[in-house]
């Protein structure tokens, strides 16, 4: 988001009580299949269509009921994705980065968790039964990680969507840092190769 700035987790945790913390997670799994028998899917990466028509990651605000960031994150994942998330837990070791926006005093923490394809498919299958399905969450989508022959279809077209907050930057950062794209795609998208 315009005006967001990255901060260290320690700095984020030292922000005063006037700040709200939110945690979101990119869930992904290796996908060996090929689209049309020729385009490697590489990984299944989950995002969601939100109630506001924007794409974002599952997760949400950490509340007083949550004893730590990850408790809040895993509770939100359960509300938004349903009971298949109880097969795993997103931990501090899955933490990627934090960003603050001066207004409205929210610090957004980002995590990425590698699942098996079976675990990820179970999340997709159970998501329509989640508490917030059809309310806060209008549906899950997988992110296309390839570029079609026309140079636009696939990831470039996906990135033209409207994203909430820093979700687009979080997606690109994770695709780069977790090496989910092939080098050709990284070069065409001109994603910087270091932080
Ligand atoms: P409520 O149930 O209404 O409290 O929603 P929630 O707890 O699920 O919160 P939500 O997921 O909407 O996100 C909380 C805050 O983080 C809001 O300020 C959003 O604008 C922001 N946000 C939502 N999704 C993302 C995301 O994927 N990345 C980032 N960086 N921020 C997000
Ligand atoms: Mn077909
Ligand atoms: Mn929520
Ligand atoms: Mn949410
Ligand atoms: Mn919430
Ligand atoms: Mn809610």
UniProtKB/TrEMBL annotation:
Keyword check for RNA-binding: yes
One matching Pfam family: Nudt16-like
Coiled-coil zones: none
Entry's Gene Ontology molecular function annotations: 5'-(N(7)-methylguanosine 5'-triphospho)-[mRNA] hydrolase activity; IDP phosphatase activity; metal ion binding; nucleotide binding; RNA binding
Keywords from the named record: Cytoplasm, Hydrolase, Magnesium, Manganese, Metal-binding, Nucleotide metabolism, Nucleotide-binding, Nucleus, RNA-binding
Catalytic activity: a 5'-end FAD-phospho-ribonucleoside in mRNA + H2O = a 5'-end phospho-adenosine-phospho-ribonucleoside in mRNA + FMN + 2 H(+); dIDP + H2O = dIMP + phosphate + H(+); a 5'-end CoA-ribonucleoside in mRNA + H2O = a 5'-end phospho-adenosine-phospho-ribonucleoside in mRNA + (R)-4'-phosphopantetheine + 2 H(+); a 5'-end (N(7)-methyl 5'-triphosphoguanosine)-ribonucleoside in mRNA + H2O = N(7)-methyl-GDP + a 5'-end phospho-ribonucleoside in mRNA + 2 H(+)
Cofactor: Mn(2+); Mg(2+); Co(2+)
Single GO BP term: mRNA catabolic process
Domain Nudix hydrolase, residue spans: 18-173
PROSITE patterns associated with the record: NUDIX
Cellular component annotations (GO), alphabetically ordered: cytoplasm; nucleolus; nucleoplasm
Catalytic activity, EC: 3.6.1.62, 3.6.1.64
Annotated compartments: Cytoplasm; Nucleus, Nucleolus; Nucleus, Nucleoplasm
Family: Belongs to the Nudix hydrolase family. NUDT16 subfamily.
Record text on subunit structure and interactions: Homodimer.
Annotated protein name in UniProt: U8 snoRNA-decapping enzyme
Gene source species: Rattus norvegicus (Rat)
């Amino acid at each position: 988001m315009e005006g967001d700035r990255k901060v260290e987790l320690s700095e984020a945790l030292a922000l005063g009580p006037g700040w709200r913390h939110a945690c979101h997670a990119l869930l992904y799994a290796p996908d060996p299949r090929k689209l049309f028998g020729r385009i490697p899917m590489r990984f299944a990466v989950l995002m969601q269509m939100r109630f506001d028509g924007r794409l974002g990651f599952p997760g949400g605000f950490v509340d007083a009921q949550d004893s730590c960031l990850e408790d809040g994150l895993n509770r939100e994942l359960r509300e938004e994705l349903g009971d298949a998330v109880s097969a795993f837990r997103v931990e501090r070791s899955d933490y990627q980065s934090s960003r603050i926006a001066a207004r409205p005093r929210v610090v957004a923490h980002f995590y990425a968790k590698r699942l098996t394809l079976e675990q990820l498919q179970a999340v997709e299958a159970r998501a329509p039964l989640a508490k917030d399905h059809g309310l806060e969450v209008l549906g899950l989508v997988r992110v296309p990680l390839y570029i079609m022959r026309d140079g636009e279809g696939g990831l470039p077209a996906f990135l033209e969507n409207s994203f909430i907050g820093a979700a687009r930057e979080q997606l690109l950062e994770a695709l780069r840092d977790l090496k989910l794209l092939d080098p050709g795609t990284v070069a065409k998208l001109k994603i910087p190769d270091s932080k």
